[in-house]
Design brief:
The protein is an all-alpha fold and 452 residues long. The chain has helices spanning 2-13, 18-30, 34-47, 52-64, 68-81, 86-98, 102-115, 120-132, 136-149, 155-168, 172-185, 189-202, 206-218, 224-236, 240-253, 258-270, 274-287, 292-304, 308-321, 326-339, 343-353, 362-374, 378-391, 396-408, 412-427, 436-450.
């Protein structure tokens, strides 16, 4: 609050102060007021038209508002005014990849490499991009260029990229040998050990992976990372009790470490021991009450138990701490709009969910589409709910949402089919038939069938 008050004082004295406008705009974006942020940023851009930071902030505001095309335009301008600088190019490329425009992203990165051929960040991102697509010659070219730079701080990263290329080409022995060399050098050996074990598992050599890890643990018996890796390996090898014992020991040693808590919670739930799972989670939260991950898990558990307002309260707190987290934003907006009908809550859900518009993620499409339906924007709802239902074929609520939209649009046959599907799926889902939406589905179906 103090910093915000100071910025407001500066802007009272000088309404065109660029730095103050940028700061206030950043806060406005966090507060889900992207339109107000854009007003400030346009004023700042008038003073400094080739400021890549301002353009990047405008892109963030458009992204928060769900205007992805406009966000992309601003990120492209930021690359242009920066002369193809590494940070702006990587940021734009990552945006493009997230929005399924990989070919354009590759062009951006290749152009950035031409501008800065020895930039390790660009080379590293290019290598990872090509590895993700199994384009081994291009990946090798980028890694070879990184290797030639011989930067001491990048030795481990370069070795891991090279090992990933070997593993991707099924050259598992070469991959393991390279990583073992890294372990022998003692440089960030945890990461190398993890990759060695993962590579052997990928090659189907579970026993060799276990033996190698046991050897590593002999010289680092208290290494938490390796113990967690061992527990995961035990689980893969059909030894769940050994994994559970490791997680319990790690929790006893450090109750505030949320990683073994989350993993143990998931294992206990998977084996049907929900009471022990709940006790594990609550004990973890008592030891680490500020843990974002544990609170998130608790919110999901509360939602599953039908304690919606308690789940919303947790998501509210998580969102207040980090409003840029898209998944938290989706979950919060989804719960609000699913279980609350009043205009104030719908307005808030819409403000939170704007960023989801146009994103090709079924859960996000379902949330945004249902909000659009509730707001009466039927065409916008249709553009999101149809792909959401297709992408979430076993989710009764996604099918229900589309069925309700079809009914609203007068598409009776499709509405009947969709709502019947929702009820069928709900009956096969734990507690699904008891969802209030399914009672609504039955009522609408009765009305539609009576009118035939």
């Amino acid at each position: 609050v103090g910093a915000r008050a100071l910025v407001e004082e500066v802007l009272v004295e000088d309404a065109s102060n660029v730095d103050a406008l940028k700061l206030r705009a950043g806060w406005l974006i966090e507060d889900d007021k992207p339109g107000d942020a854009i007003v400030d940023l346009r004023a700042a851009l008038g003073q400094s038209p080739r400021d890549a930071t301002i353009l990047t902030l405008i892109a963030s505001a458009h992204e928060r508002d769900g205007s992805l095309d406009l966000a992309g335009e601003q990120l492209a301008r930021a690359v242009e005014v920066s002369g193809g600088a590494a940070s702006e190019s990587v940021r734009y490329a990552q945006f493009l990849i997230q929005n399924r425009q990989s070919a354009v992203a590759e062009t951006v990165l290749v152009n950035a490499r031409r501008v800065s051929p020895n930039n390790p960040t660009i080379l590293g991102v290019l290598a990872q991009y090509y590895i993700s697509l199994s384009r081994w010659p291009e990946a090798q070219d980028a890694v070879t260029a990184l290797t030639a730079l011989d930067l001491p701080d990048d030795q481990t990263k370069v070795a891991q990229l090279q090992a990933a290329i070997f593993a991707g080409q099924n050259r598992f022995d070469d991959s393991v040998a390279l990583l073992q060399d890294q372990v022998a050098k003692g440089s960030q050996s945890d990461a190398a050990v993890v990759m060695i074990v993962q590579t052997q598992v990928k090659a189907g050599k579970l026993a060799e992976a276990r033996a190698y890890l046991d050897g590593a643990l002999q010289t680092a018996a208290d290494n938490v990372t390796l113990q967690l890796l061992g527990a995961g390996l035990d689980e893969q090898m059909g030894k769940p009790e050994a994994a559970i014992a490791t997680y319990r020991a790690l929790i006893q040693r450090d109750p505030a470490n949320d990683v073994p808590v989350r993993l143990l919670y998931a294992m206990l739930n998977a084996k049907g021991d929900t009471e022990a799972a709940a006790q594990t989670l609550d004990a973890g939260l008592a030891a680490a009450p500020a843990s974002t991950n544990l609170r998130w898990v608790k919110a999901v558990a509360l939602e599953g138990a039908g304690q919606i307002d308690a789940a919303i309260e947790i998501y509210d707190n998580l969102y207040a701490e980090n409003s840029s987290n898209t998944v938290i934003a989706n979950n919060l907006a989804s719960l609000i709009t699913t279980y609350h009908d009043d205009p104030a809550n719908l307005d808030r859900a819409e403000a939170i969910a704007r960023r989801l518009r146009g994103l090709e993620v079924p859960a996000f499409q379902d949330t945004y589409g249902w909000i659009a339906f509730r707001r009466g924007n039927l065409n916008d709802a249709l553009a999101h709910l149809e792909p959401a239902a297709k992408g979430l074929p076993k989710d009764p609520l996604a099918q229900f949402h589309l069925g309700m939209l079809y009914d609203k649009m007068g598409r009776k046959d499709e509405a009947i089919r969709q709502l019947e599907l929702a009820l069928t799926l709900a009956s096969a889902t734990p507690n699904g038939s008891g969802l209030p939406q399914m009672a609504t589905a039955r009522q609408v179906l009765d009305r539609l069938k009576a009118a035939l």
